[in-house]
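Today's session is about reading a structure prediction critically. Students often jump straight to the picture, but the first step is always the sequence itself: look for stretches that repeat, for charged clusters, for runs of hydrophobic residues. Only then move on to the predicted structure, which in these notes is written as discrete structure tokens rather than atom positions. Here is the chain we will use throughout the hour.
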Amino acid sequence: MTGAKTSARTAPVRGSQSIDRAMQLLRHVAAHHAQGIELASLVEAAQLDRTTTYRIATSLVRAGLVSRDGTTGLYRLGIEAMALGLTAMQRAPIIERCLPAMKVLARRTEEHVFLVVRSGDHSHCLHLEQGVHPIRSFFETVGSIRLLGLGIPSFSFLAEMSDEDVAAHYARHQAEYQSHNMSAGKLQRWIRQTRELGHAHISAKGIAGVGMRFAVGSCGDAALGIVVPASRMSRARGEVLVGMLKGEIGRLSSQ
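Below is the predicted structure for this chain, in token form.
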């Protein structure tokens, strides 16, 4: 009797394989959203036959979760996928996931802890956990969307990009970077430093901080950062803060 119950409980739900395959395909499309992905690449990535892949992709297009360019045939995420993501942002699950770690860091360091996510060429600040000493300008960044590299944690996103992609990124936004006195050389130096250290550690304009990237789901990027007045960030203290940050992100990544 017990064996029968276990078998019934663990048996696959009818149609679940089709759902699993559709979700797998959707993740591959999401991972290649910016440049688009062709059907042949989806077939290879999903390890399904061409007919099955095309049928699932067509169903996702009908649902609005995926779009297909009529000229190039490339697949990208669709309007409905964007709508679902925007709805999730009203109560972003990543904030709930990261909040305990952010509270621990804010309590132990007595400094401000930021959560940012990458959105293409920009970073979006989702949450700030307040330190002991309130800094008004820090609160104004919550909800803001800024170019990568105009906030300390976002250097950990730039460090993941190739030199060619960084150069193209800077060229697209050169005017805005220059309005913030951010030359291509300065941006590249800080990116190289971030790669060498394995985390961002930046000091500029009286502000200093450390930041570290971690993966979100199958294709997203987020980062936690601890940002302080430069007068409170010695090299030794920076190393201590990085150690705390690594510990909390390690626990987040293992969840």
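Discussion point for the tutorial: The first strand starts at residue 66 and ends at 68.
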